[in-house]
Amino acid sequence: MPRWDAHCTSERRLTGYFDAARSLTRSDAEAVRSLVLGILGITPYVDRVLELADASDGSDREHHGLLMERDGTAAALALFGPVAGADRLWHLGMFLVAPRVDVREIGGALLDAVVSFVRDRHARVLMAELPADPVIGSSLSLLRGKGFKQEARIPDFYRDGVALLFLRMNL
């Protein structure tokens, strides 16, 4: 299958500063690691996010990652994939936007790219399973603002005071 970003847009720059969303590659590992550690720090889920990012380099059909960057510096990252055994259900495992980057503009463009990607694959639902952690509070606000609705919440899932959220967007 051709890479998604090869045909998603002829415009390669967003607002003259950030590249348009593109699929992750192995060469993005250092920039992605820097973004993930810079946002998540030492949290119970940071290792899993790094594992997902490593698996989302386009080498398999189960893990996908989209990245927005500027001059090789990662600005926003989305990790997602289809849910095995479910009918056209996709899972958003992490959505990160760098500090001091406009979440509505850059994060919004990345989320639009994710939605376009899964719609192109005939998805009917996109579920986000994310920690209710202040370190990704702006990302959670963006998801809600773009139409994700909370389906469930498991209190104290990751640690005291940090729940696991299930957010749903019907496509």
Descriptive notes:
The chain has 171 residues and is of the alpha+beta class. The protein has a single domain (11-170), classed as Aminopeptidase. The protein has helices at 5-8, 29-40, 46-55, 103-120, 137-145; strands at 13-14, 18-19, 22-23, 64-70, 73-82, 89-97, 125-131, 149-159, 162-170. A seven-stranded mixed β-sheet has the order 3-4-5-6-7-9-8, sandwiched between helices. α2 (29-40) runs antiparallel to α3. The longest helix is centred in the middle third of the chain and has 18 residues, at 103-120. Residues 1-16 have low confidence and may be disordered.
SSE layout:
Layout lengths: L4 H4 L4 E2 L3 E2 L2 E2 L5 H12 L5 H10 L8 E7 L2 E10 L6 E9 L5 H18 L4 E7 L5 H9 L3 E11 L2 E9 L1
Helix pairs in contact: 2-3, 4-5
Main beta sheet strand tally, sense and closure: 7 strands, mixed
> What is the ordering of alpha helices and beta strands?
HEEEHHEEEHEHEE
Find the count of extended strands (DSSP E, 2+ residues).
9
What is the straight-line distance between the termini?
23 Å
Uncertain runs are 1-16
Broad shape: globular
In short:
The chain has helices at residues 5-8, 29-40, 46-55, 103-120, 137-145; strands spanning 13-14, 18-19, 22-23, 64-70, 73-82, 89-97, 125-131, 149-159, 162-170. It is an alpha+beta fold and 171 residues long. The chain has a 7-stranded mixed sheet with strand order 3-4-5-6-7-9-8, with helices on both faces. The protein has a two-stranded antiparallel sheet with strand order 1-2.
